[in-house]
Specification:
The mean pLDDT is about 85. Helices cover about 35% and strands about 25% of the residues. Strand 21 and strand 22 (about 470-475) form a beta hairpin. A 6-stranded mixed beta sheet has the order 6-9-10-3-11-12, sandwiched between helices. Strands 18-19-20-15-21-22 form a 6-stranded mixed beta sheet, with helices on both faces. The protein has a 4-stranded antiparallel beta sheet with strand order 2-1-4-5, with helices on one face. Helix 4 packs across helix 5 (about 145-155). With about 500 residues, the chain is α/β, with parallel strands linked by helices. The chain has 2 domains: about 5-240, P-loop containing nucleotide triphosphate hydrolases (Rossmann fold, 3-Layer(aba) Sandwich); about 255-490, P-loop containing nucleotide triphosphate hydrolases (Rossmann fold, 3-Layer(aba) Sandwich), CATH 3.40.50.
Length: about 500
C-alpha cells in the first residue's frame, strides 16, 4: 500500500470551550478515493478545513508526505497541492466565470490580462465537465448547478495532489453527477488522492475505495468500501437502526386551498395550472432548469407573473410576499445560505424575523423571542452548542431546521418547501420527512419541490412534472414512479428509452 500524502494524527479541534473533533486519525493516499461521511454536525467540515489549511488543529498533528506541517493559511496548503471544493460556493458573484476560474493566478500578456487565453483555457476546463457555460457570463447570473460546475472546473485546473470535495453533487442533476464521477475516476487513475464527502450513499458506494464515518466528532468506522452496504453506512452515521425512511402518505381532504390558473413567469414559466388540496403533499419534479423554483417564487410574489392565484377562493394579490403571508402561504427557499437565513445574525434574530410583528410592541420583546427559540429547539430538534451563536456556524441540517422553524412561526396554512433536504444527512432527512407528514396531519397543505426522485415518490400524494417551463403532466397514486416522472421530464414517448 502506498504511503499517505496527507494525514491527521490524533487531531482534536475546539471552538471556545466546545470540542467538536476528538482525537481523529485519518489519511489520504495517492490514487485512492476516501469517502468521509456522517450526519450534519458530526465534524466533517471541521476536519476537511484542517486538512485544507483553513483551520489549525487544537491538538494533534497534520502530516504531509509523512512530515509534520502547519499550514499558515489556505494559500500555503494550495501551494502544496491541496485543493478544496467547498459545499458553500467560494465564488465572487460579481465577477465573470473566467475571472473566478483564474482569480489570483491570472494569465497575462506583458502588464495586461490575457482574456483571450483565459477564456480559451476556461472553455477547455468546462468542456471536461461537458458544460457549455459561457466564460464571459457573470457568476451572479448563472444557475446554482452551473456555479457548482465552475467550482469544480476551478479545482480541476490546479493539478491537485490532494482534492477535497465537500458535497460536490448536492445541486447537480444525475447527468452532471455521472460526468463528475467519471472525472474523479480519471483523477484517481492519475494518482490524485481524493477525499469525497456526500450524503448520497449510493454515490459513496459507487466511487469510494475506503469509507470513514464520523459521529459526534469521533471516528466510529474506517473500512474498505467493498462489501460495505449503504444500510451499514447509514447505521454507523446515526448510531441506531434505521426503520423505513418515509412515513405513510397522508390522506388529503377534498377541499381545494390553492388554485393556480395559467400562471406565467416571463422567461421561465408558461401557463402553469394546478390545484392543492387541504392536508395534501403535492410534489414538483423535473430536470434542473425546468422552471420549478421560478414558478414557486412567482406564486408567492417574488417574481412578476401573469395569470391568477386563488387561496381559499380569494384572489391573491400578485407580486406581494406580504399578501401571500397574510393569506397563509409561505415559501422555504432552496438557498438557505443566500436567501433563507441571515448567517451573521444569531439564532433568535433569524427565528423571529418573518413574524417579528408578533414580538414587537414599542420595542422587540427579547424574552418572548427566547421562549420561542426554546420551543423551536424542542419541536425541531435544533442542536446548537450556544444559543447566541450566529446561524452561519450551525451545521447544514440545523440551518435547515432553523429555517423550517422560522417559517412555521408565521403559522401558515400552505407551505412550499423547495429542496427540503439538499446537503442534509440521512438522519435529519428522516426528521424532516416526519415533520412534513405532521404538517399534513394537522390540516396544512404542502408543496415539495425536489430534484431527488425518491423524495418526491416517497412523500407526495400527487406529482406535477415540469419540462421547459411548462407542467408536462400530473401523476397520482400508483402512476407515481421514477420511470413515469423521467418520461414526462424528458418529453419521451412510450417506447423511448429513459437515460438519466
Amino acid at each position: 500500500m502506498t504511503e499517505p500524502v496527507l494525514a491527521l494524527d490524533n487531531v482534536s479541534r475546539s471552538f471556545g470551550p466546545i470540542e467538536v473533533l476528538h482525537g481523529v486519525s485519518f489519511d489520504l493516499r495517492p490514487g485512492e478515493v476516501h469517502a468521509l461521511i456522517g450526519e450534519n454536525g458530526a465534524g466533517k467540515s471541521t476536519m476537511m478545513k484542517i486538512l485544507g489549511g483553513y483551520l489549525a488543529p487544537s491538538s494533534g498533528t497534520v502530516r504531509l508526505d509523512g512530515e509534520a506541517v502547519r499550514f499558515a493559511d489556505l494559500r500555503e496548503a494550495e501551494a502544496a497541492g491541496i485543493i478544496m471544493i467547498h459545499q458553500e460556493f467560494n465564488l465572487a458573484l460579481q465577477l465573470t466565470v473566467e475571472e473566478n476560474l483564474f482569480l489570483g493566478r491570472e494569465r497575462k500578456r506583458g502588464p495586461l490580462l490575457d482574456h483571450r487565453k483565459m477564456q480559451d483555457e476556461a472553455r477547455r476546463l468546462l468542456a471536461r465537465l461537458e458544460s457549455d457555460i459561457d466564460p464571459r457570463a457573470r457568476v451572479a447570473d448563472i444557475s446554482v448547478p452551473a456555479r457548482q460546475m465552475v467550482e469544480i472546473a476551478r479545482a480541476l485546473g490546479r493539478n491537485a495532489r490532494v482534492l477535497i470535495m465537500d458535497e460536490p453533487t448536492a445541486v447537480l442533476t444525475n447527468r452532471e453527477t455521472d460526468i463528475l464521477l467519471k472525472q474523479i475516476d480519471r483523477l484517481r487513475d492519475q494518482g490524485t488522492a481524493i477525499l469525497y464527502t456526500s450524503h448520497k450513499l449510493d454515490e459513496v458506494s459507487r466511487i469510494a475505495d475506503r469509507v470513514t464515518v464520523l459521529r459526534d466528532g469521533t471516528k466510529v468506522l474506517d473500512a474498505p468500501a467493498e462489501g460495505l452496504t449503504e444500510h451499514r453506512m447509514a447505521e454507523a452515521m446515526v448510531g441506531r437502526e434505521l426503520t423505513d425512511m418515509f412515513p405513510d402518505k397522508p390522506a388529503p381532504g377534498g377541499e381545494v386551498v390553492l388554485d393556480v390558473r395559467d400562471l406565467s413567469v416571463p422567461g421561465h414559466v408558461e401557463n402553469a395550472s394546478f390545484t392543492l388540496r387541504r392536508g395534501e403533499v403535492l410534489g414538483f419534479a423535473g430536470l434542473v432548469g425546468a422552471g420549478r423554483t421560478e414558478l414557486m417564487e412567482g406564486i408567492v410574489g417574488l417574481r412578476p407573473t401573469t395569470g391568477s392565484v386563488t387561496i381559499m377562493g380569494r384572489p391573491l394579490k400578485p407580486g406581494s410576499v406580504l399578501a401571500a403571508r397574510e393569506a397563509g402561504l409561505v415559501y422555504l427557499t432552496e438557498d438557505r445560505k443566500e436567501k433563507g437565513l441571515l448567517l451573521g445574525k444569531n439564532l433568535r434574530e433569524n427565528l423571529t424575523l418573518l413574524a417579528l410583528d408578533r414580538f414587537t410592541r414599542i420595542r422587540i420583546d427579547k424574552a418572548a423571542e427566547d421562549e420561542a427559540l426554546s420551543r423551536a429547539f424542542d419541536e425541531f430538534d435544533i442542536r446548537a452548542g450556544d444559543r447566541e451563536m450566529d446561524a452561519g456556524n450551525l451545521s447544514g441540517g440545523n440551518q435547515q431546521k432553523l429555517l423550517l422553524a422560522k417559517t412555521m412561526l408565521a403559522e401558515p396554512d400552505i407551505v412550499i418547501i423547495d429542496e427540503p433536504t439538499r446537503g442534509i444527512d440521512i438522519g435529519t432527512k428522516q426528521q424532516i420527512y416526519q415533520f412534513i407528514r405532521r404538517l399534513a396531519d394537522g390540516g396544512k397543505s404542502v408543496i415539495v419541490v425536489s430534484s431527488e426522485l425518491p423524495e418526491v415518490i416517497g412523500l407526495a400524494n400527487r406529482v406535477c412534472v415540469m419540462r421547459r417551463g411548462t407542467i408536462a403532466g400530473e401523476l397520482e397514486g400508483s402512476e407515481i414512479g421514477e420511470d413515469s416522472i423521467l418520461r414526462l421530464a424528458m418529453g419521451l414517448g412510450a417506447n423511448e428509452k429513459v437515460t438519466a
